[in-house]
Amino acid sequence: MKRAETEILAEDRLIVEHQRPARMPLARPPSSGFRHADEQLDRPTRERNYRSGVGVFAAHDLTCPEKETHVAPVPTGRVTGQGDRCLLVLTRTFQAPLRELWAAVTEPERLARWIGTFTGDPASGQVSFQMTAEEGAPATQAEIRECTPPHTLRVRIHAGTEQWLLDLELAEADGVTTLTFSQPGLDPAAAENVGPGWEYYLDRLVAAETGGEPAAVDFERDYYPAMRDHYQRQASALSPQA
């Protein structure tokens, strides 16, 4: 190759090298503020870690707890008309035998895990019921209107001047038990308060029967006032003014 051509090629190479972006040096920890994660390792291990991107800074290895994503329960209750009153209906399903759920809603020890307990002889047709999830709640008289094990339980709760009719129906199919809770004769104006309350207690029952913690079910965060509009809209639709 002629000398002139050699000089031209060499000059072109210098131009190309000059225009090529500088290669970023391998990231190294600053002299202070962070301790290098590999400083106690032998050189081959350190080099292998750098090639794989492992352990550049000790600070990168700090474990920060992941923020748990809370999924709020969705209201499922239905409010339908019943003359000048209304009917509230909610359902829950369980991967459990029918008789297991019957025990959960009729035996004092099982009831106490999610709502309350009772004293007295059910055979007499009346017991004293004490809420366990509401501090300071007074005991109320519960009249047993119907009890057909293990499918049907109907009671009347006397609370001051109020009387609530509460019905439970259990049915099993293919190993799945469905609990249907209903409250007939409810004042439509009370649905926005009563509906979220029963959502709350039935979800406590679900927690108790599925290995969860009933106390972790948070009424103020997830049920009221969060579910108020769901019931208010349904009750308002029943009003003649709606």
Protein model, in words:
It is a single chain. With 242 residues, the chain is α+β, with helices and mostly antiparallel strands. It is built from seven helices and eight strands, in the order ααββααββββββααα. The chain has a domain at 78-238: START domain (Alpha-D-Glucose-1,6-Bisphosphate, Chain A, domain 4). It has helices at 3-19, 43-52, 98-106, 108-112, 191-209, 219-222, 228-238; strands at 78-82, 85-94, 116-119, 126-131, 140-148, 152-159, 162-173, 176-186. An eight-stranded antiparallel sheet has the order 1-2-8-7-6-5-4-3. The chain is globular, with a radius of gyration of 34 Å. Residues 5-11, 13-39 and 52-61 have low confidence and may be disordered.
Question: Would you state the CATH class of the domain at 78-238?
Answer: Alpha Beta
Overall shape: globular
SSE string, helices as H and strands as E: HHEEHHEEEEEEHHH
Structural class: alpha+beta
Beta-strand segment tally:
8
CATH topology of the domain at 78-238: Alpha-D-Glucose-1,6-Bisphosphate, Chain A, domain 4
Average pLDDT number? 82
How far apart the termini lie comes to: 98 Å
Fourth CATH level, the homologous superfamily of the domain at 78-238: START domain
Share of helix among residues? 25-40%
| Order of strands across the main sheet | 1-2-8-7-6-5-4-3
Radius of gyration: 34 Å
DSSP strand (E) fraction? Answer: 25-35%
Number of helices: 7
Second CATH tier, the architecture of the domain at 78-238: 2-Layer Sandwich
How does the major sheet shape up? Answer: 8 strands, antiparallel
